[in-house]
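hiii, so i know i said id send this last week but things got crazy w the move. better late than never?? heres the sequnce for the chain we talked about at the cafe, plus the structure i predicted for it. fair warning i was half asleep when i ran it
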Amino acid sequence: MRRNVRLFWMLMLVFVFLTSACSPAGNNTESSQNEGIVTVEENMTEPGSFPIVKEKVTLKVLIRGASGVDFDTNTFTKWYEEKTNVHIQFEVAPENGFEETLNLALASGNYPDMIIGMEIKPATEMLYGKSGTFLPLNDMIEKYGVNMKKIFDEKPLVQQVITAPDGNIYSVPDIGECFHCDYAKRMWINKTWLDNLGLKMPTTTEEYYNVLKAFKTQDPNGNGKADEIPLAGAVGGWNTEIEGFLMNSFIYNPMGSTQTGMMLDQGKVVAAFIQDPWKEGLAYMKRLYSEGLIAPETFTQDNAQYRQMGEGGDAPRVGSCPGGLYGCTAYGQERYKEYVALPPLAGPDGTRIAWTNPYEGITSGRIVITNNSKYPEVAFRWADGLLDGGEVSLRSDTGTMGEYWDWAEEGTGINGKPAVWEKLKEKTADSNVGWQTRAPRYYPADLRLGEKRNDEFPLEVILFEAAKQYEPYKADSSLVIPPLFYDEEQAAELVNLEKTIIDYKKEMLARFITGDADLESEWGTYVDTMNQMGLERYSQIIQEAYDASQK
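okay and structure toks below
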C-alpha cells in the first residue's frame, strides 16, 4: 500500500513537471491569472488605440522625483491610467542625487519594468543595452510604435540621435522643440536707456562698445548718480555668461549640452577656444572690461546675485545683460519691460552668428525597458502613447485639459498661424497636475507655437519674437557636433579630460578678460597647457565617435 502511494506521488510530480514544461512561457506569452487572458498579444488592443490592454496590467517603474509632484495621486497619472488601463507602481528616486539610486538598482539587478526620467546617458544605454539589461526597441517600434514611426518620418534627426552605433535603439526619447531655446544665447539691452540718450540699436561690436560707453557716462537712468553698470553677467544661470553671446561675433561659440566648446570644421573635430578668432573675441571683451564697461562680479556672481543687481535700487542700474530669459531681471518684475533683445552683432571681419543647436530639443534615455519586464510590449505601447504630439503631451506638460488649457476655437498662435490651443491658467509649484517633463513628450514647434496669443501670458510671444531676430544669423549645422554614443571606456576617459579642460578654459577666459593674465604674452602658454591636459586626445575620442555615427 505504501509503495503504491509513493508511486502515485512520483507520477503526479512527473505530470506537473511535464505540464509546466509544455506550458507557454516567456515575455511574449505570459499573462497574469488575474487578467484571465492566455497571451499578452490577445490582451492588447490595436496599435495606436486606447485602452492599450483589455484587462488591466500593472507595471513597476523607477522614476526621478520632481518638485511638487506626487506620482501616485497626480492628476495626469490617474488620467493616463484610465486611458491606457495600465496601472503604474512607482518607486521614486530623489530629484537630486537620483544617479546613486539608478546605479545601485542597475548594479544589484533589482530594477523594475521601466526606468523613467533618469537622464540615462548614451554610454549607459550602450553598456546596459549590450549586456541585455535594457531591451532593444527596434522590433517593438516596427510593430507597435505608431507615434515613434510618425516622429521618425517628421523629424529624421530624432532617429539619428537615439540610434546606437550597433544599430539598436535602447530608449524612448523626449522631443521638446523650443524655437526660442534654439537661440538661447541672447543679450538684452535697456531700450529705455537707448531712448533716453537718443541712441540707435547697435548692430556691430564697435557700435555696441560706444553704446556701453554712453551708458556709463551719460546717466541714462536719470537719477543724477554715476551708478550705471553698462554690462553684467553671471555664472551658472541659463546662458548668463557674456561670452555666450559676444564670442559669436568672432567665431562660432559651441557651448551647449552636446558641445562643450568643440565644433566641426569640414568634418574635423576642433576646439573653438584655441583658435585665433577666439583670441580676438577675448581681446574685445578685455577692452570692455579695462574701460569699466563690464561689472567685475560678472565672473563670480550667481543667478540670485545677478537678479539683485538688475532688480535692486530705486532706478535700473544695468544697461545690458545676457540670458536665455531676461538675465539680470526676472520675467514678471516690472523692470523687465525696459529690456529688449539685442540682435547678433557683426564683428570686425563681419562675422555675425547666432548660436544654435538643431539637436538641443532631442533627449534620449527618457524611458528604458528592462529585461525584468514581464510585459515589455505593453510597457513600450504605454511609452509610445505619451508621444502623441497632442492631448497626452499637453496634459503631461501643461496640466489638466479644461482647467489649465483647452483647444482653441479661434485666435492666432504665437507663430502667427491659427491657434491650436490656449492656456487658461499657469501651474503653481504644488499643482500636481503634470509630470514636470519626467515623461517623454512629443512637443513639436507647431504645437508649442500653436498656443493662442494671450496678453495675460505674453512670455512665449516675447521670446519667440526675440528669437526671430536671431534666426537669420543661425550657425550653419555643419559646425555642430551631434549627440554621440561612446562606449564605457571612451565615456570614462572623456569625462576626466573634459572637466580638466573646460575648467581651465573658464578660468583663463576670466583671467584674460580681467587682465589677470596677459593675453598677448600668455596665449601660447594657454594653448600649450591645453594640449598637455589632453586636448588632442579629447578631440580624438569625439572624432572617433562622430565618424562612427556617420557610417
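btw Confidence is low (pLDDT under 50) at residues 1-37. thought thatd interest u
miss u guys!!
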